[in-house]
Amino acid sequence: MYWVATRSAVVSFPRWRSLAHLLHSSPRRYSSFNPSPVFFGQFGKIYCFKDRKVLKGSAKVTKKLKALNVLDEKGLSNILWWKERMQACRKPSTIQLLKRLEYSNLLGLDVNLKNGSLKEGTLNWEILQFKSKFPREVLLCRVGDFYEAIGIDACILVEYAGLNPFGGLRSDSIPRAGCPVVNLRQTLDDLTRNGYSVCIVEEVQGPTQARSRKSRFISGHAHPGSPYVFGLAGVDHDLDFPEPMPVVGISRSARGYCINLVLETMKTYSSEDGLTEEALVTKLRTCRYHHLFLHTSLRHNSSGTCRWGEFGEGGLLWGECVSRHYEWFEGNPVTELLSKVKELYGLADEITFRNVTVSSENRPRPLTLGTATQIGAIPMEGIPCLLKMLLPPNCTGLPGLYVRDILLNPPAYEIASTIQATCKLMSNVTCSIPEFTCVSSAKLVKLLELREANHIEFCRIKNVVDEILHMNRNSELGEILELLMDPTWVATGLKIDFETLVSECEWTSVKISGMISLDGENDSKISSSSIVPSEFFEDMESAWKGRVKRIHIEEEFREAEVAAEALSLAVTEDFLPIISRIKATTAPLGGPKGEILYAREHEAVWFKGKRFMPSVWAGTPGEEQIRHLKPAIDSKGRKVGEEWFTTAKVEDALTRYHEAGAKAKAKVLELLRGLSSELQAKVNILVFASTLLIIAKALFAHVSEGRRRRWVFPTLTEPLRSKGLKPFNRVDGMKIVGLSPYWFDAAEGSAVNNTVDMQELFLLTGPNGGGKSSLLRSICAAALLGSCGFMVPAESALIPHFDSIMLHMKSYDSPADGKSSFQVEMSEIRSIISAASERSLVLVDEICRGTETAKGTCIAGSIIELLDKIGCLGIVSTHLHGIFSLPLNTKNTVYKAMGTVHVDGQTKPTWKLMDGICRESLAFETAKREGIPETIIQRAEELYHSVYAKEVFPGKDDTKLEQSCSNTSFNVSDGSNIQLNSSNGKAAQRNRLTNQMEILQKEVESAVTEICQKKLIELYNKEKASELSEIRCVPIGAREQPPPSTIGVSCVYVMLSPNNKIYVGQTDDLEGRVRAHRLKEGMQKISFLYFTVPGKSLACQLETLLINQLPNRGFQLTNIADGKHRNFGTANLALESASVC
């Protein structure tokens, strides 16, 4: 047994090498506290001293205690925290490094090893000071061209970042590892991917005095979901920014489970109470979080479930948490969690977090885990993914995440109605729509807060606000914009007035336009010279030119231009005569060589040559310049090579040029960071605007895909409030006509449609493979989509706004919790019946199939009676036919079945819903179809007929209630359609180009309208000419796309190129055709004109007509040859029933 002492604590536990060799005497006065639960039983107690001096011993021990003097209770708990992580390391090289750790300080350094000194003033001591500020983050310290880590942090780098330790595995030195500067991003990605936060320490750049240590500072942090952004303002590339990962706190209250989410990046938190265990686990499964904290209220156990009694109630929750890192906390679940977050991220106490919780009153319950997985809202192998059916394949990222969040957390009726009204307007929009720039809110907040937004990000921000303004100026899109305000409020927790949004977006657009060089603007031309390599000026000046408008850096710009001219002059005077001399010298082999080159690594322009020294100095041209040459040296004063030369004049000009460039770059960074500071005051507006565009893009994409799949908008009904204005009355019923499985494409005719008129609870029977499970999934998906305001896979639908939608399918056992599959099923059923109300939709597939038949049948019957009494809508499917012999007390339950049909003497499923009971299971046929040997099937049939055949139809007369599906025939040809599986000009020049494009567009529009209108009048009967609708050309701007109303509609379009050439085409997929054209090089910003016509034949004829006649009007076509490949007759088209718009 050893005693370990620090300034305020003594620990006693068995031999532990990392805390050994310290004192054995016991303290005089102490108070106890509880360490990490992982070590509580293993290491005994930890005592905190109240006296400052408690120990005496040798000088050696005193020195060690002095090193430990900085440790307090938190410091010791941080060491224990790191030791837990070290015990999880598995790589052999890491395990060897672990043997050299000494857990007496936060770095884990053994001061007795080589380079292990923690003496004040050393680099290790400096690193320890930084580590003490963020004790639970991996610390990377910039040392020259490397980022280094020592001790515990070095072990983490070796284990998770794939780096090799410095010095190999020498046992006489402390663990050290690191990565080159160029590999920092990859190293940070590896660490954050494994759940670690990283603190990065940078060196102060610039010259230092001899024998003095460079100053260092904490430049930033990288957390899971929050990347390192230091220096981003000075580069010309973007940074992938993942969705932020919250800190999660889980607690228990009288209303149920509560989850609190804290986003350090956004400085926000939200709370959701009253959750079931299944809904809570669903949120944990779909939320990538940084840290998990469990509140001590979870330890209160009343269920007596296996193993969970030690930790709290809820075996499913424990099974989810046991495999993850978590910590316990106590006190107020919100305020204490916020304190934990501030401690975790090293935030000051005065930092405040904004509550973005949106009231859950009248909002449906979140989906349970079973429901979410069984309809594919959460991806699961073998289950069709609902998300993939709602959005087109090219709509991913933030819009997809929004749709998934809506499905998992259905909105209140008011928001769902608003979403549906918005989608209906989107479906009928005829104008072009913006691209909808999607920017992560967390990225906006972090870059503006840290003042690291670069010119690329400012251009993206301007796109966001400009698209908001574009929507506001358009009458069709303006109405959509106003409707999107409330869904955006729910998504962000920000309540912003519409007029405020528009005015602030206008201010932001003007502010950025006045500062940033936007796309197409180029008032900062790169310097050029006929002597100096162009790559030199490009590399040196691209770091600051083209970022802000020249008017803001005019002085610095002129200094750089003057310095560039001086450099060109110096190179011309000192190097060019030598080059001319060399060229004038002729030699058959091995003659003199020389050229002016750009030394990229040294950022210099030097002369490179050999054998150019004259053998006899005769005063010929170039000799004077050769005398002035000297060897080129690098930044450290070392000679670069034998062939590189420079002169004092060139070096002086290079120095002045670099100084001018550095001054200009500093000014640009100052302006960019100043703009970040100004926009930070508008960050809530920018977050709101960016989120609104994400929602708009998601809904437009959904409408486009829904129209392609021929889905419809349901009628969403709101249950009336009772007189007390608190509870709602029961729902009136749900009716879905032509319901098809959501994973089938109705446009391809590959689905069996069903009509579901549900006014009560259905007790459903049917054969194996008869479609019971598919029907339940389809109904669940349709009800959920309707409750969210989305389109549904049906011909028409009336869907109530349910307070909860619960689907239970198959159950598996849970060995971790000691539960059989039947126990898990009963646990899920318990959650369903406890949450069900008369406004709920309950769908249970094959109830009680995990236990013996007789008692399972009785349990199922009792559950059906309870659901019937509650009055909810739903379906309970079963193969337990004995349930129809039970004396059930039900009033709101009807019997439904999946139909079968006799074909060639065999019974086959029709997958159609019908009234009655189906006792045919098709078990033998199913087993045979899946490859069970024929001998087994035959023997099974013999056993069945000998024992069970007489029990199929009991003696009791139940003809009034039963209609045997096997005796029912269907006319397959009666129209029911049953099938099996079945994106160097100045301002004046740019404006001129814009005006030219506008003129071209108007001219083309006028010509197209005249030509096509005349042709249509010829095709129509003269007496119906007055009824002919005029052709209306719709423009699609450079950053716009066609509306969803063009999906599946024949269109004729004209592509307008910047070179004043046009292309005429026709398509039934305008969105796809526009996207395909813009994918070609140099055509990303082309614009279009289009008009819709009734039918592809007419579209082809008008296309040919335009190709042949537009050149006669002076237009240049790129596809004029296409007009010769089409030959259509002149017969009149039957257009009376169609219209042109």
From TrEMBL:
Coiled coil: none annotated. InterPro entries: DNA_mismatch_repair_MutS-lik_N, DNA_mismatch_repair_MutS_C, DNA_mismatch_repair_MutS_N, GIY-YIG_endonuc, GIY-YIG_endonuc_sf, MtDNA_mismatch_repair_MutS, P-loop_NTPase. Pfam families: GIY-YIG, MutS_I, MutS_V. The keyword DNA-binding applies. Keywords: ATP-binding, DNA damage, DNA-binding, Nucleotide-binding. It comes from the Eukaryota. Residues 840-856 form the DNA mismatch repair proteins mutS family domain. Transmembrane segments: none annotated. PANTHER family: MUTL PROTEIN ISOFORM 1. This is DNA mismatch repair protein MSH1, mitochondrial. It comes from Ziziphus jujuba. The gene is LOC107422746.
